Amino acid sequence: MKKSILSFVLVATTSIFYAQSTLDKYDGMDDVNTILVNKKMFELMSKVHADSNDAQMQNYLNLTKKIDDLKVFSTTNPNVGQEMKITAENYIKTTNLNQLKQIKEGNKIATVYTDSGATNAQVKELFMFVNSPENGESVLMDVKGNFNLNEIGLLIDKMQIPGGAYLKQATGQP
């Protein structure tokens, strides 16, 4: 019995560690641009005093209260881009994410995955990988929290996230 419990704890710990370190390995890597925003920073952002008449800003500040973690890694190095593609494929295999949409424009492919919350529009995790072999551009993005999929365009616009146009297209936003 003790061996079973120990085995379970070891597997669970390894899975959690793997999920965190899988994407974090790109933080600080040469040729990789990084955006990392944690829950604490989103909480601080939500407390910014803004014009109460600006509905879009108020919606953005409300959205920041719902996001726990944002990670975006982008590169134009084809070797790193290929590594990101493999990382994305492996990450999808080890998580509970479902493909929301794939967008193909020429050689550029953007794939968006989600883990739904209480409703189809509620999302606990949104994962996107954009691969453009012709110019070597690759973007890996992971957003965690409990937010409405229709609100994500606000985050994309305000933070100018690489590959954001594909994400807005995948979620049907203008």
Set out the fold topology:
Blueprint: H1 2-24, E1 32-38, H2 39-46, H3 55-64, E2 67-75, H4 78-94, E3 98-105, E4 108-116, E5 122-132, E6 137-148, H5 152-159, H6 164-170
Antiparallel strand pairs: 1-2, 2-6, 3-4, 4-5, 5-6
- Computed over alpha carbons, the radius of gyration is 17 Å
The residue ranges in which pLDDT falls below 50 over 5 or more consecutive positions are 1-19
Count of DSSP-assigned helices: 6
- Determine the strand fraction and express it as a percent band: 25-35%
Got a strand count?
6
Helix amount: 40-55%
Task: Return the structural class.
Answer: alpha+beta
Count of individual domains:
1
The SSE string, one letter per element, is HEHHEHEEEEHH
Q: What characterizes the major β-sheet?
A: 6 strands, antiparallel
User: What is the topology, as strand order, of the major beta sheet?
Assistant: 1-2-6-5-4-3
Mean pLDDT: 80
What is the CA-CA span between the terminal residues? Answer: 56 Å
Net shape:
globular
Description:
This protein has 174 residues and is an alpha+beta fold. It has one domain. The chain has six helices and six strands. It has a six-stranded antiparallel beta sheet with strand order 1-2-6-5-4-3, sandwiched between helices. Helix 2 packs antiparallel against helix 3. The termini are far apart. This is DUF4252 domain-containing protein. It holds the Pfam family DUF4252. Keywords: Signal. InterPro entries: DUF4252.
Brief summary:
The protein has 174 residues and is of the alpha+beta class.
Tag the structure with descriptive keywords:
single chain; 174 residues; alpha+beta; 6-stranded antiparallel β-sheet; 6 helices; 6 strands; 42% helix; DUF4252; signal; DUF4252 domain-containing protein
